[in-house]
Amino acid sequence: MKKIILLCTLAVVMFACKSISATSTNTDRKAQVNMKGNWEISSVTYPGSQYVKVNSFQLADSECFVGSKWKFVSNNNKGTMAIAKAGCPSFSSSITWFVNNDKQFVLKVLNAGEKAKKVRDGYVLRLDNQTATSFQLVDRIDVAGNMTDVVYQFNKIN
């Protein structure tokens, strides 16, 4: 009897300690609706940017994202993103995205013809300072053992 109680207790403790995934929480519909439309990244900032190069979204140097165009469709959580800066690799792709209740922005970059459910890798960034015409996405990266914020400033375009 003692063994059964001990096993039940251990099972409860193990399930109670399970971490919650960014993709398993509810969506923040208001934040998502506020992101609907066309956007441009006006700046990418982080401490030490003059010394450290950041490869954003495993696509290009973070500076290549300045001027990139993003479209967010809130009713189906799809969109597009495109880089077209001189001296940078040209890139355009469909995306899927959502904002969860913890203000985490979850992003998947899709290859041509690829379904989102087939893509296993994605990015989780923090949504900050959201207004009707701007917002920031903040990525946490490790630079020489120190966690650093990379801030992508988005501004609404027509």
Automatic annotation (TrEMBL):
The keyword Signal appears for this protein: yes
Lipocalin-like domain residues: 35-113
Keyword Repressor applies: no
Signal peptide coordinates: 1-22
InterPro entries: Lipocalin-like (IPR024311)
Keyword terms: Signal
Listed name of the protein: Lipocalin-like domain-containing protein
